Each structure stands twice: as structure tokens, then as C-alpha cells.
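Task: sequence design from structure.
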């Protein structure tokens, strides 16, 4: 790999390198190729008086982004990036790129996002775009490491095809499952609850589908979630796991992706943690003259919390009962208010997770479903799973693309998806 030239190879050593033509400079008697692979770039130089005629001529014959193989000798060169370059001896074309390229793949591309997504496979040639997904890979790996090594949780795989709504919403993608109607799962929550009630700590990275007809910079119709569920837990224990998992992930990104963060001009810090009640948040917004719904936080309120508590995961708990799903355990406030064991986690001005303690009592669960206007018959298997020794439990889910977008300060969540699926896009 090209990175080995700067880390392991010494001047005078012969190398064989394969990669993409990032740039070509033809100075008549001297020619340069900047060769690129996933590990970096290296300058390849050929002088007319030192290079055989065929190879020297070839150096300027193939288009940018073509895939080539070069053989040469490592040279110390103070003027070259990294202090080393490759003296060319032989060059072979592996795959020539057609030209003109349909999008600009330079470091400072001005091609608009929709067109870049049309040619995403080519957009991924850009180092900045590669950096986004290198970091996202670290996020997933770090989440798994934390769950396995720190929490000793079991990784699980759950069904993507379901017979009824997971969360009570109506925006589901319908599918034909032999003679029955089925749906693409909008959440694995009900299944991870069932598993946590026997195996205590479980996690997964799960694909979800939501048939909501929105077209915002924060939402997708197909997304990935990093989910966790834990038995014998209330919402405060769950919030603690969530906070430590995010801190662990951010710490790993800082350690492993420092060069990628530089390329993206991101100064990332391990976040602090702050706990406030929903009532406290409402009072803050009242003083700040920021409007918010009675049972939810507005986008403006989330941004204000970030201004007040920068680089902090803000947990808003004691959430109003009306603002939570049927599966969140209700509780009574100190003044008799109808509250819940639910919470939202706000990071960098955006909600990264919603979670809490679940209802584990079949009779209460049936009652809650009816209160939400849902038919308990559609959730019978779910209700029945709690009839045979189900402990109190809770969990959370973090959107993979959303936390990538937030951590890197991206303007549009589609930047954090390899091949986005939204209301208008099914390809590539």
C-alpha cells in the first residue's frame, strides 16, 4: 500500500504499487503522477533522460481516476509530500477511466449533492468522502467493542419482516409475504425487549424502514440503528450506558481517525453529560422565549440546550406520558403529573436517541395500547412474552447516520449514507 512507502520503505527499495491516478503534471522533460489508494497519496516521477521512452510517454496518456500499477524505486525528496517519491521504472494500465467524468472528484468539488449521489460510486473516490465512512466504520466498531467488552452484552440479529407495527405508527412499507400482508420493520425494539427478558443485555446494529413522506436534511426512509436493551434497569441506568457508549465511540474516533477529522476540518471533543427534567427544559425555554410543544422538544429548543451546554450529552427525562410510546413505563410526578420513565438524549443541538424503561406488565401494556388507540390483538405475541417472568427493563437506539452527521457537522444526513434511500431515491 502507498502508506507503507512513508512508514516502512527506505530509499533505494523497489516497490510495486496499485492505485488511482489522482493527478498528472507534464513538464515536458519531467512528468509527475500522483497515485492514490485508501492509505494515502504518493508522487511518482519520471525524467526523460532517466526513463525508457515507452514508460515516459505512457505517464501522460491515461485519464485521471484510471487504475494503474507502477514499479519503481523509493527516493528521498524534500520537495515531495511526505519527503519521499517513487522513481518510475514500469507502468501498466489496469482499468482506464472514461472521460469526461460525470462529476467533479477533486478535493474541492463544487458538484451539488443530488448529482454526486447519482454517481455515488465515483463520489467515493474523494478523500473527504472516504473519511466520512472511515469514521462511520470506527463508530460501528467502537459501539460493538463497548457493548462486548464494557457491558458484556450479547450481539443479536432480529427479523426485518414483521406482521404489524413495532411502534404503533401507520407509516410502514407494506410487502406481500406469501398469502399474508407483512411490513418492513420500523424498529427491532419489541424483539430486543423479548430477548433482554431472558438474556439480560443485548445489542444490535439494525436496518429500519419508515415510510414517512418527508424530505428533510435529518431524515431517511432507510437507516441503521445502534440498539441496546437491558434487564433489571430503570431509565437512569439506561442513560448511563448510553452516555458512556457515546463517549467511548467519540474517544475511539479521535484516537483512530485524527487525519480524517483534519481533512473534514472537525475538532471533536469527548462530551460531558448533563441531566435535566422535561419541566426544567420547558422552564429554560420559557425564559429564553423559545416555543416548544407541550409534550415534546422543538428543534429550536434542542439547539438552545446545545448553546447552554456545549459539547455535552443533555438527557431530558421525566418526559410527559402523552409524549411517549405505549411501551414506555408511566409514572406519577411529585405534583401528580402524568409522566413517564422515558427520555431524549440531545447532542450538538439534535436528538440522537430516545429511550427509557419499558412496560413489562401484560395488563398495563394492554391498557397502554388501548389508550394509544391500538388494538392489543395485533401485539398479542409481544404482550404474551411478558407473562412468564419478565423483569423491569429498558433500552435505547442511536441512529448511525444521524450521529455520524452530528459528530462531523454535516449539513445533510445523506452525506452520512453510502447509498441513501429517501422518498425520491432508489438508485444507485
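Answer:
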Amino acid at each position: 500500500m502507498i502508506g507503507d512507502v512513508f512508514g516502512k520503505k527506505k530509499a533505494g527499495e523497489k516497490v510495486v504499487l496499485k492505485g488511482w491516478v489522482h493527478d498528472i503534471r507534464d513538464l515536458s522533460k519531467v512528468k509527475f503522477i500522483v497515485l492514490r489508494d485508501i492509505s494515502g497519496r504518493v508522487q511518482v516521477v519520471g525524467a526523460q533522460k532517466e526513463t525508457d521512452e515507452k514508460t515516459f510517454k505512457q505517464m501522460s496518456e491515461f485519464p485521471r481516476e484510471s487504475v494503474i500499477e507502477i514499479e519503481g524505486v523509493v527516493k528521498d525528496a524534500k520537495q515531495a509530500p511526505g519527503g519521499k517519491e517513487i522513481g518510475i521504472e514500469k507502468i501498466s494500465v489496469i482499468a482506464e477511466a472514461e472521460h469526461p467524468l460525470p462529476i467533479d472528484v477533486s478535493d474541492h468539488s463544487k458538484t451539488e449533492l443530488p448529482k454526486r449521489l447519482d454517481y455515488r460510486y465515483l463520489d467515493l473516490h474523494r478523500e473527504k468522502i472516504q473519511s466520512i465512512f472511515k469514521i462511520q466504520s470506527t463508530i460501528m466498531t467502537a459501539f460493538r467493542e463497548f457493548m462486548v467488552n464494557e457491558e458484556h452484552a450479547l450481539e443479536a440479529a432480529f427479523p426485518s419482516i414483521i406482521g404489524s407495527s413495532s411502534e404503533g405508527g401507520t407509516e410502514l412499507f407494506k410487502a406481500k409475504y406469501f398469502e399474508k400482508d407483512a411490513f418492513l420493520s420500523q424498529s427491532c425494539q419489541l424483539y430486543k425487549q423479548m430477548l433482554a427478558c431472558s438474556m439480560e443485555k443485548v445489542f444490535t446494529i439494525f436496518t429500519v424502514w419508515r415510510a414517512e413522506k418527508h424530505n428533510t436534511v435529518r431524515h431517511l426512509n432507510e437507516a441503521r440503528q445502534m440498539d441496546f436493551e437491558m434487564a433489571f434497569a430503570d431509565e437512569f441506568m439506561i442513560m448511563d450506558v448510553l452516555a458512556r457508549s457515546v463517549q467511548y465511540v467519540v474517544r475511539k474516533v479521535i484516537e483512530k481517525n485524527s487525519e480524517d477529522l483534519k481533512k473534514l476540518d472537525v475538532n471533536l471533543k469527548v462530551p460531558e453529560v448533563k441531566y435535566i427534567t422535561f419541566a426544567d427544559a420547558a422552564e429554560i425555554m420559557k425564559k429564553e422565549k423559545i416555543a416548544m410543544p407541550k409534550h415534546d422538544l422543538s428543534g429550536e429548543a434542542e439547539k438552545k440546550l446545545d448553546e447552554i451546554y456545549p459539547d455535552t450529552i443533555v438527557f431530558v427525562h421525566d418526559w410527559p406520558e402523552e409524549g411517549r410510546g405505549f411501551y414506555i413505563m408511566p409514572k406519577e410526578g411529585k405534583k401528580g403529573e402524568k409522566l413517564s420513565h422515558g427520555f431524549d438524549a440531545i447532542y450538538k443541538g439534535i436528538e440522537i436517541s430516545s429511550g427509557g424503561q419499558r412496560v413489562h406488565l401484560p395488563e398495563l401494556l394492554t391498557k397502554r395500547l388501548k389508550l394509544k388507540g391500538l388494538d392489543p390483538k395485533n401485539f398479542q405475541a409481544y404482550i404474551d412474552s411478558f407473562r412468564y417472568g419478565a423483569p423491569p427493563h429498558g433500552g435505547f437506539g442511536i441512529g448511525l447516520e444521524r450521529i455520524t452527521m452530528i459528530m462531523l457537522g454535516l449539513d445533510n444526513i445523506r452525506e452520512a449514507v453510502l447509498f441513501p434511500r429517501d422518498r425520491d431515491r432508489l438508485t444507485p
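The CA atoms of residues 275 and 315 lie 5 Å apart.
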